[in-house]
Amino acid sequence: METQTISLITDCLVPAITAAVGWLAGKRKRRNDALKSMQDSIDILSLENKRLIEDLTTVNREVVALRKENGELKTSVDQLCKENAQLKTEIQDLRKQITNAPA
Predict the structure, then answer these.
(1) Residue 1: its pLDDT value, please?
(2) What's the CA angle centered on 7, arms 6 and 10, to 5 degrees?
(3) Rounded distance, CA 35 to CA 43, Å?
(4) Which residues does 27 contact at the CB level (< 8 Å), separation at least 6?
(5) Does the pLDDT at position 12 exceed 90?
């Protein structure tokens, strides 16, 4: 009878204990795998964020350069408009002189 009890204990208890230990070990591994997956995702997002920041910085520099160039062009256009107005006035004066000149 004693051997039957021992056999029953080893047949039922050992697999249950082994299953519990395996489940606990598997649970820890699954949690570690999930954490590793999340960390990999964070690393990928960090690299993408760094690349986007670099791109944004480059674009920002280009915008600043274009604004500076735009300001210079506006100044040039204003100056050319003034010169054009002066030349128009000068042409009108010269036409008046030609029409008023004795023939």
Answers:
(1) 65
(2) 85
(3) 12
(4) none
(5) no
